[in-house]
Amino acid sequence: xxxxxxxxxxxxxxxxxxxxxxxxxxxxxxxxxxxxxxxxxxxxxxxxxxxxxxxxxxxxxxxxxxxxxxxxxxxxxxxxxxxxxxxxxxxxxxxxxxxxxxxxxxxxxxxxxxxxxxxxxxxxxxxxxxxxxxxxxxxxxxxxxxxxxxxxxxxxxxxxxxxxxxxxxxxxxxxxxxxxxxxxxxxxxxxxxxxxxxxxxxxxxxxxxxxxxxxxx
Length: 217
Known about the structure:
alpha/beta, four-stranded mixed beta sheet, 10 helices, globular, disordered C terminus
């Protein structure tokens, strides 16, 4: 069992840097131009398809964009009181192409995944549990850490062969590598055919400029 957590208060993993995203979009990116995004996709493939390790996300902070895409590819997700999770891409004329759309459907069900993706709104730990994003949510960071550690320790007591087969058997619910590649290609086409989305990203950067008050949004 491997547990992913964060040592940065208020954050699990945030989104892809919009300034870099804007830079890439002006060059009409292809799947080979997306650098950090493809690293994220590759990490997801390791988590889902090429290792029998059970991966747990221990989330107690903002988990936006690519951060949620990575957490959605883990086998289990648990939330603390400060967890906030969102796929904001649709509001910026992008899509969650690093596995977000493809994974959230099986996790949440189609209707709730559509609501979550299209509304582009943050949801908290309680709502995320109700939506099926989190296995459970806890009222304190200490309780979150204690419960997740206890679960990992218990799983680690059991024979590896049966654990391997359980993960392999449930792998049919995960998108294939081909499906993810096709999603990235569609995103590249959107960026090329609809360049006006660059203006939306510029407006988003302006409205959330950290230099205005020293805080991130």
